[in-house]
Specification:
Largest sheet: 4 strands, parallel
Helix content: 40-55%
Oligomer: single chain
Distance between the termini: 57 Å
Number of helices: 16
């Protein structure tokens, strides 16, 4: 089925009831502008397909969708506005509708050229210096998500002082001279980088203490291509994913350990659809932990990651947390959980900030101790020291033997 038919098949089901707007995390932060909500995106997609879209600005509406899939869980017609946004981004990226986003184009160009959205492939492996890994066919794939957070945090801080038109001009210049993106290596929050590196080391330590044998590719580790997929570059993503698969086969990888929900989701659900013959099993690292923990003196609340609970994936992290502490979840939890705003950080940092602050307040109303299980969630919700990544929290409770 071609792309337009796929979109039409979904949009034709919409009864415009507006239930989805009650859970869409981007509608309120964008001033209740309807095109930045789930229903508005479906209506805009339908209009763009049936009417002339010449001169119509489509990109920001669909690019700002967080792909959290909260909408489909309340829609009586089963419409997934997140999937509509994904398909419309593919139309925009292919040049068939609307205007391409220069920042998205810059990210795509960097991934295709350097294998990393910010050209940070070598820097993404520095955290593992001095760690001894096993000669194993099970491979730890970090997805380079923890490693990129200190850079995106610093870059977005700088962007606050830059006019949006200048941001677009800079991105356009980098598309033509993509080597310039490597200057991003100088823009990072050192304290936050140390924190992220510490979390990565905690993950390795917990796995090794659980008796798990695994290897790590270091500077050869491939970025899985999440942004290519999420920004609609279907052709480029397929080409890139095939390259990643060929590398994994060359390295003899028989199993993948993923440590963030986005990497887990893309290898588990997307690669098998676009890469012929991809059958490498993927497991979330928390499912492999076999450790003894002390009880936590207090209660906690948890930011459940969208790419696990709303994308119909599963992991045992919540079971582990429940075994050590009383969990007080916010009203929006489980299948109605609210996104942290993380996926908007590179393209729409202001929207991401507003979404994350709202979610932070919801979580803190339940407990002062907030646990995240995703580096994007941690990056967006870490407004105080009582917000902790799962690896840090459980690392502190791990019984030393």
């Amino acid at each position: 089925m071609n792309l337009i038919k796929q979109i039409e098949e979904i949009t034709d089901k919409c009864i415009s009831c507006g239930f989805c707007e009650s859970v869409c995390p981007t509608l309120e932060p964008d001033g209740y502008n309807s095109v930045f909500g789930a229903r508005g995106r479906v209506i805009l997609a339908d209009f763009a397909l049936k009417e002339s879209s010449e001169g119509l600005e489509l990109g920001n509406s669909f690019y700002s969708c967080l792909d959290c899939y909260a909408c489909v869980n309340v829609c009586p017609a089963g419409v997934n506005a997140g999937v509509v946004s994904e398909l419309m981004r593919e139309l925009v990226a292919s040049g068939n509708r609307g205007t391409k986003n220069p920042v998205a184009e810059m990210i795509k160009t960097s991934i295709m050229e350097y294998g990393n959205p910010l050209g940070l492939k070598e820097e993404s492996a520095e955290w593992a210096d001095g760690i001894k890994f096993d000669d194993s066919s099970t491979m730890l794939i970090t997805g380079q998500m923890y490693q990129m957070m200190p850079y995106t945090r610093k870059i977005n801080k700088v962007r606050k002082y830059i006019d949006e038109n200048l941001t677009i001009n800079i991105a356009s210049a980098m598309i033509r001279h993509i080597s310039l993106i490597k200057f991003s290596r100088h823009f990072y929050n050192k304290q936050f980088r140390d924190k992220m590196n510490g979390d990565l080391k905690n993950i390795v330590s917990m796995l090794q203490k659980s008796g798990v044998k695994f290897n790590y590719l270091g500077a050869e580790e491939p970025y899985p291509g999440m942004f290519l997929h999420e920004l609609g570059y279907a052709k480029e993503f397929k080409e890139y994913a095939e390259t990643v698969y060929n590398l994994l086969k060359e390295k003899g990888v028989k199993r993948i350990i993923a440590i963030d929900p986005h990497t887990y989701d893309i290898f588990k659900n997307v690669y098998p659809e676009v890469v012929k013959g991809f059958k490498i099993p993927v497991v979330y690292y928390t499912d492999l932990l076999d450790l003894e923990y002390r009880k936590f003196n207090g209660n906690i609340t948890v930011q459940e990651p969208c790419h696990i609970v709303l994308h119909n994936n599963n992991f045992k992290a919540m079971d582990i947390l429940n075994s050590v502490a009383e969990i007080k979840l916010p009203e929006r939890s489980g299948k109605s959980t609210m996104c942290c705003g993380g996926p908007d950080e590179l393209l729409f940092p202001d929207t991401a900030k507003k979404v994350s602050m709202k979610r932070y307040k919801d979580l803190k109303a339940k407990s002062d101790n907030v646990i995240t299980i995703c580096p994007l969630c941690y990056n967006n919700l870490a407004y105080d020291e009582n917000v902790m990544d799962f690896s840090e929290f459980m690392g502190k409770l791990m019984v030393k033997k």
